[in-house]
Amino acid sequence: MSGYIAEMRKLVGHRTIIQCGASIICADRDGRILLGRRLDNHMWTYSGGSVEIDERVEDCAKRELAEEMGLTAQEMGFFMVNSGPEAHYVYPNGDEVSNFEIVYLCTKWQGQPSARDGEMGELRFFACNEINMAEISPPVRPVIAAYIERYGAK
């Protein structure tokens, strides 16, 4: 952890903080989405992270995609906002957050998926009918459910 959130943690310890995040769901031509297995909770998630001070959310989402999955987003559009009690999360280290996450959908990118920053292990594409919600990281389940509802019948 680095940047703004790390500085906040020095001040507040594990207490709940509001965490503004930006994320990208990468979907291929068949509607399969790219997920990575988190190394801290061993569950699947898409790319995303905390917005730094004065950083545009779009730039944060692109940065996180490059850092975590080795991809460069070429085209992305707004998908949804993830917030509220369902997005509240306690990390395995005890840090607690109330997430406010802006999620983008990306269908055109450059590069080959590869785990880069040590936050994710295995990366793979999932068809909607292959996703086991019990294996999805809890704070992103509402977003994955919304994606499946919107695009799963494809």
Explain what you see.
This protein has a four-stranded mixed beta sheet with strand order 4-1-6-5, with helices on both faces. The chain has a three-stranded antiparallel beta sheet with strand order 3-2-7, with no helix packed on it. Helices cover 22% and strands 41% of the residues. It has three helices and seven strands. It is of the alpha+beta class and 154 residues long. The longest helix is centred in the middle third of the chain and has 13 residues, at 57-69. The mean pLDDT is 95. Strand 2 and strand 3 (44-45) form a beta hairpin. It is globular, with a radius of gyration of 15 Å. The chain has helices at 3-12, 57-69, 141-151; strands at residues 17-26, 33-38, 44-45, 47-50, 72-90, 96-110, 120-126.
Tally of DSSP helical segments:
3
Helix content: 10-25%
Low-confidence stretches: none
Radius of gyration computed on alpha carbons: 15 Å
How many strand units? 7
Helix/sheet category: alpha+beta
Strand content: 35-45%
The mean pLDDT is 95
SSE succession: HEEEEHEEEH
Based on Cα principal axes, name the global outline.
Answer: globular
Sheet with most strands: 4 strands, mixed
Oligomerization state: single chain
Strand line-up in the sheet with most strands: 4-1-6-5
The termini sit apart by 38 Å
